[in-house]
Amino acid sequence: MTEPSVFTRIIDREIPAEIVHEDDLVIALRDIAPQAPVHVLVVPKDPQYADVAELAAGDPALLAHVVATAKRIAEAEAGGEFRLIFNTGAGAGQTVFHVHAHVLAGGLEESRLA
Ligand code: 5GP
Question: What is the CATH number of the domain that holds 83?
Fold first, then answer.
């Protein structure tokens, strides 16, 4: 058995987080180290997908729901425009291997892809 991810522990209410949305399929919470005025993580509750490539191959409808949730959060918090990032692999900066979308919004006009 592998250890539950930090996101599974948040879903299970073992550790606290600022949750902005939850439904049967996903949870959305504010990143603990925000990189933009709005920085929310949208996380499928199913822990079996380590990254977005696995999710896209295994459950494309769930990936679409992650994107739709990101859009709703951006509409509620930042006028509907947003950047969606899926770090995929340690070499790309992924640190939690439970797939999650970073929703970044607000004040990004000057910020191009790094
Ligand atoms: P990754 O580096 O895997 O793309 O993204 C993981 C994200 O999870 C990071 O941006 C990090 O700040 C966030 N994170 C890690 N641990 C916690 C936590 O305990 N609570 C919250 N809210 N965010 C976390």
Answer: 3.30.428.10
Single pTM value for the model: 0.97
Q: Is residue 1 part of a domain?
A: no
Q: How far is the CA of 79 from the centre of ligand 1 (A)?
A: 24
Active site residue 100: yes
| Total number of domains constituting the chain | 1
Q: DSSP strand E in 1-114: where?
A: 19-22, 26-30, 38-44, 83-85, 101-105
Distance, in Å, from the CA atom of 16 to the CA atom of 26, rounded to the nearest integer, reads 16
Q: Which parts of the chain sit beneath pLDDT 50?
A: none
